[in-house]
Amino acid sequence: MSTTSSNGNNAVATQTVKANLGDAGTHLKQAAGHAGEAIKGAAGAAGEEMRLGKAQVKSELAETALSGIAAAELAGAASREQMDRLMDKGRDLIDSASDLIRERPLASFGMAFATGWIIAKLARSGDK
Q: What is the value of pTM for the model shown?
């Protein structure tokens, strides 16, 4: 009797192992499905973050372009302003020179003559 009872226990044990392995396979399959869903969710979230980041980069680049255009426009106005200042200084210098010539005509003529002579001398010495 012990053989029959032993075979019966073995059959039950085998069936239990098979059932446990079947349950393990089912649970493994479900775990794989959940992992796949998690990966899909993570990929979707990453894609959304990428779209958001891309939109933010585009926005900042557009702001950069607008700031650059504004700076270029202001640079033109600033250069005109500087040119006007230089022209005013040039006019002031010409007025000062005119006043000096009126006040001291002989000294002015002498300075102009001496300057011309020095320039001519330097030009001739450069030709040799």
A: 0.41
